[in-house]
What does this fold into?
Amino acid sequence: MTAVGIEGGKGPAEALKPVRAPVPQPKAGEVLIRVRAAGVNRPDIVQRNGFYPPPPGAPETLGLEVAGEVVGAEGRWRAGDRVCALLGGGGYAQYAVCDARHALPIPAGLDFVQAAGLPETVFTVYANVFEHGGLKAGETLLVHGATSGIGVTAIQMAKAAGAKVIATARGAEKAKAALALGADLAVDAAAEDFAQAAKDAGGVDVVLDMVGGDYFPKNLDALKTGGRIVYIAAQGGGEITVPVFRIMQKRAVITGSTLRPRDADEKARLAAEIERVVWPWIAAGKVKPQVDRTFPLARAAEAHAWLESGAHVGKVVLTVD
It folds into this structure.
């Protein structure tokens, strides 16, 4: 089969090259998927740069989410079933394997490209915003990086759950895009004080932060008493200074998580919850995949360069022949 390798083991986007590789063989409890589309995510870039190795037993090939057709029966799946799936790796290829419990049926009305952009983002948002962050109807979510794949998903899922959303993005056009996606308030973080804007709007209960660094004091300032700050990345810096007495005064919770290293049973639990809670939102049109641009598998280098440019609004997806 054709897959995408990293020339030299790590490097810039141009290091991504099509290679020939054996078709993976599923183990007991796994399904083989004929990949039709694969989502491109920030962790792929981090791995390409040599800083995010796959967990033990996962393929070295990049790719954490795919959509396609099941090749052979396993578990609830039969040959020909249309699925999207969360992977530990291996998505940038014509075939991929995954734990059968980590695959979900493609919602009615979605094509493979749209479905390929769901698993990594939906799993991440559900686990961090709704489980770790405990967001409830009537509360307010502050989401940074609002036009990223995670950001656009978080806006829609929070609104579907009955929450208010304050979104930040860098640039007036991206802030406008966040409003179009359903945010109640969008702040151009390059030109405005998002903490002041959030406080003027009544404060926030949950912050979903992928920036880190100097966003922390502003997050804390915007937080209501009993609020939660959830970290999923630290693109702006991995160190923060925590004012202990301020945390105590606000009864604030600071937490965060990664998705990829979670064990198979935990991911299976998440998959079942997402199918129960989020799939009906998609069926009702409350959550719609936002695909910014597609690239053929052989042009994965261009896809990475586009994602790294930060010009995208929504998901970048590879199409696979």
Observations:
- The two ends are 11 Å apart (CA to CA).
- The CA atoms of residues 67 and 84 lie 4 Å apart.
- The longest strand covers residues 30-40.
- Residues 264-283 form the longest helix (20 residues).
